[in-house]
Structures are given as C-alpha cells and as structure tokens.
Amino acid sequence: MSYYKRMVSNHLDSTFSKTRFNGSVLVAKNGQVIYEMYNGFIDPRTGKDSITPSTPFHLASVSKTFTGMATLKLWQEGKLNIDDPVSKYLPGFPLEAVTVRLLLNHRSGIPKYDHYMGSMGWDRHKMVSNQDVLDFLIANYKKIPIAPANHGFSYSNTNFALLALIIEKVSGQSYPEYLKKTFFEPFGMKDTYVFTLADSAKYMPSFYYSGKEYRFEFLDAVYGDKNVYSTVRDLLKWDQALKNESIFKKSFLDQAYSGYSFEKPGTHNYGLGWRMYLLNNGKKLIYHNGWWHGNRTSFYRMLDEDATIIALCNNDCRYVYKVKEMADIFGDYLQNNNRYDDDDPSNPQIAQAQKPVVTRRSHTVAHKKKPAGRRSTAKK
C-alpha cells in the first residue's frame, strides 16, 4: 500500500498546495483509508471552527446517488417498478411516456426546474418545495420546452426532485426520514442528513472562491437532486455498503452501473443515479460530481480495484474535480480528457442558473485570507 499512499500524497500536494481549497479529501483502497486531508474552516472568512472529519458538506449532485439507490431499493423490494409511468405514482403528472427509469437516467426530456421556474413567473421570494416543482410542471407543461421522452440524454435536476416525491409516495415516509432509516442509520453514517428549512440554523454555508458568502435563495429547499449533507468518511461507508449484496442484489447494481445513452459516441454515460466513463480498454469508472453555489464535490469509485476517491469543498474551488486524475494510480483509467461535467457551471455550454435572490439576511464581510494549515493524514 505504500506505493498508493506516496502517489496520492504527491498528487494532492501538487493539486491543492497553491489553492484556497476549503474542504476535505479521502482516498481509500480495499475499504481502508490511505489518505485524509482536512483544510480550512467552516466559515473561511473567520479562521475559526476548523473543518474536521465530522464536518458535513452539501454534496450537491452527489446527492443523486442516494436518490437513485433509494428508488432501486424500493424496486428491489417490489414496492414500485421503474418501468411504470411516473403518473402511476404522481397523480396529475402530464407526460404519459415518461417512466421512473427515464427520470433515473435523465432521458425524460424535462428541462431543469432551476432554470425555468424563476423565468416563468415563480415568485423568487417564495421558497420552492418538491411539490411545487411537480405542481408548476403540471400547470405549465405546455409552455415548458420539454423534449420527447427517451430520445436522448439531457441532465436535469427536475428528474431527481420528482424521484424524491415518488420515494415519499411509495414508502409513506418523508424523503429525509426514508434515507435516514434505510441508509444513514444502518450504515453508521452519523454525520449525514438531508437538509430541510428546519436545519437553517445549523447547516454549513458556501462561499465564492473570493470568500464572499453565497446567499440562501428560493431554490435551496428542494431535495433529491441535492441537499444531502455528508462527510468523506460517511461517503466511504456508503461506497462500501453498496458492495454488500445483502443490501442490493447484483442484478440491480448492474442496472444502476450500466449506460443508457448512446446517441453520441464517447466515453461519458449515465446509469441510474450514477455517471460513468465507459473506456475503450473495457474499464468502467463509476462516479458523480456536484456543484451547487460554492459547494463542489467529487465521488469516484473504481470497482475493479476497490478504490475510492472523495473530495468536498464549500468555497467554489474547481480543483476538487482534478482528483479524478488519481484514478490512474489504481488502474488504467486514461484520465486525460478535459470534457466538462454537467455539474460544473464553468462549462460554457451549460446555461447560467438563475441569479440568486436574498430570502434571508446574509453576511457580506470582506474576505480576509487566514492561515489555514492543511492537516493531512497519510496512513502508515
């Protein structure tokens, strides 16, 4: 294991040493941590309250891995069928050709609610709920530019906001409670939770790279597509739990990790709640990235080698996404392409999200760089 430790440490030192990275990183092999790093502060402007192993970060779109697997868990238990139309579970849903599976693999054709609701009349001073996402779609679907179902891949947060409602309908529990009882508690993920407005006093805010705080805005209460908060250690527990076939049968995992969109040639694809690289050498890299406001996250899983790479930050540090390059330390994953990810707002092809509107008091203290000594633990 000394080779892996040395290579990981060298890569992360060269990647983050000259940045303002404010967050945590963990790399594991065979379920054992070989490297951890915790750098900075919960509020990087203050230099107080250092980030620790128990500091939960907003996972942004990495949250979709929980929503996807929660849906598959209900399917495995026979409580739903992902090839049923969404309208079977969400009465009034107007698109009969859209199935639960097409929500999971982003082939529903429904665009992002976070792009169209604000521009189509939603009062931006009123918080959007998951039910609001559904109700707005029902009321306005003839005006929303919806593509034909199953004609191509189109990444959309709306899909997973709707899946959270389906989980609630089928399970009889709230989405936060279902994840807590089904995944977080059984897997010992004691620092993981789903954010709701009741958590407004305790959640960790996010920041621009300059240090200015992102303002809480009208889209921040929707879950399923985002709003799971967790730590790098808890995400390793999630990674390892998914390999236990007593929880998920192999046939269901195989469907989750299969690509469904082949209209365009390339290595990038999407399964059921998971991104993947399908490489020409036969390798498959399972992952999900995330971005929401200043929260940037990366979660890479090399199933063949039982290796895991996790990086989380709350200060808009784009270098988080470079951790994927470490995949080649463990196997031949050919990480030499620079294609953008749908969750990276710096992608020039991705439309800009709606500008945030203040819905609560927000501090605007000027950023002052504090000496934040990086604390790394390369396991001996």
Automatic annotation (TrEMBL):
PANTHER family: BETA-LACTAMASE-RELATED DOMAIN-CONTAINING PROTEIN (PTHR46825:SF9), D-ALANYL-D-ALANINE-CARBOXYPEPTIDASE/ENDOPEPTIDASE AMPH (PTHR46825)
Region of interest (Disordered), residue spans: 341-380
Domain of life according to the entry: Bacteria
UniProt name for this protein: Beta-lactamase-related domain-containing protein
Record domain Beta-lactamase-related: where: 23-315
Basic residues: compositionally biased ranges: 358-380
